[in-house]
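Write out the 3D structure for:
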Amino acid sequence: MSAPAKKVVVFDYGFGNVRSAERALAHVGADVEITRDYDRAMNADGLLVPGVGAFSACMKGLRDARGDWIVGRRLSGGRPVMGICVGMQILFERGIEHGVETEGLDEWPGVVSPLKAPVVPHMGWNTVEAPEDSELFAGLDAGARYYFVHSYAVHDWSLEVTNAKIRAPRVSWATHGEPFVAAVENGALWATQFHPEKSGDAGAQLLTNWIGTL
């Protein structure tokens, strides 16, 4: 008898393309539910936090839906969470848009700030430079392309780990005008700046890899 499908909640707080995420996760075999219900989000095998639009608006929507509390509680218990696009950005300490600073979830130190590139937003397909030991990009060719839509990003970022028993985050990079963080794998918390649900076969493999860790 095969194992039951992993239960994944796509957190619905009004700021993400939840239907695309639902379809992509179901396509790779997850049992998916779109909800903001506290108990369902807490008890799922995996929680996916999407995000589109402005950093400040996403943070307000997430807090209004108690999503900040849910993400924090899940991670404190080592329960997997994945952020996508602005859903990744809000995991950092703060975001700066039009000169206005907004506090993020502060799961990671770092600042989300405007991309410095000849053309903004960065919209379309791009490659990603992933570390060799990446679980998220396992089985994917270095030339694989992923779909990005964003005007802000995290730059020049690293997270120093002083405890030898704790593994340093695996950080993947992309370049549009300048290098920026494209993905992070940090224990139970993974995130991508690009949209795996819009990235074809490569995105499907990424989601398969994440579900395989749940």
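Residues 66 and 115 are 30 Å apart (CA to CA).
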